[in-house]
Design goal:
The chain contains 2 helices and 5 strands; from the N terminus they run H-H-E-E-E-E-E. The chain has a 3-stranded mixed sheet with strand order 4-3-5, with no helix packed on it. A two-stranded antiparallel sheet has the order 1-2. A hairpin with a 5-residue loop joins strand 3 and strand 4. By secondary structure, the protein is α+β, with helices and mostly antiparallel strands. Helix 1 crosses helix 2. Helix content is 21%, strand content 23%. It is globular and about 55 Å long. The chain starts with a helix and ends in an 8-residue tail after the last strand. It has 2 domains: 52 residues, Winged helix-like DNA-binding domain superfamily/Winged helix DNA-binding domain (Arc Repressor Mutant, subunit A); 50 residues, Ferric-uptake regulator, C-terminal dimerisarion domain (Dna Ligase, domain 1). It binds zinc ion (2 copies). One zinc ion binds next to loops.
């Protein structure tokens, strides 16, 4: 979710909520590690609930939605010799099922 989506969801429960309030709340939740930021190239900041579980994302070009993808692939083989691999980012992209022609 991005802050605008959070705002539109939260407005169901809290009328009169402003985007500035949402940004402030989101910032606090990130500091408390309840939310994590997800970086998607070409997309504004995206947040999701921290599940403390390693996973990746699928970005749909058609609807600009980001989906969480469980599991991972082995990337050890890509690491140059004598390099220490500490983390990695993988972003899958394409079209989600909702954007595929039926
Ligand atoms: Zn889509
Ligand atoms: Zn991974």
């Amino acid at each position: 979710m991005n802050p605008l989506e959070i705002l539109s969801l939260a407005q169901y429960s809290f009328s009169g909520l402003s985007l500035a309030t949402v940004y402030r709340a989101v910032k606090e939740l990130v500091e408390e590690k309840w939310l994590i930021t997800v970086e998607v190239p070409g997309l504004s900041l995206y947040y999701e609930i921290n599940r403390h579980k390693h996973h990746h994302h699928f970005y749909c070009y058609a609807c600009s939605k980001v989906f969480e993808v469980d599991g991972c692939v082995s990337v050890e083989g890509l690491t140059p010799k004598d390099f220490l691999l500490e983390s990695h980012e993988i972003l899958l992209s394409g079209k989600c099922s909702g954007c595929m022609p039926r």
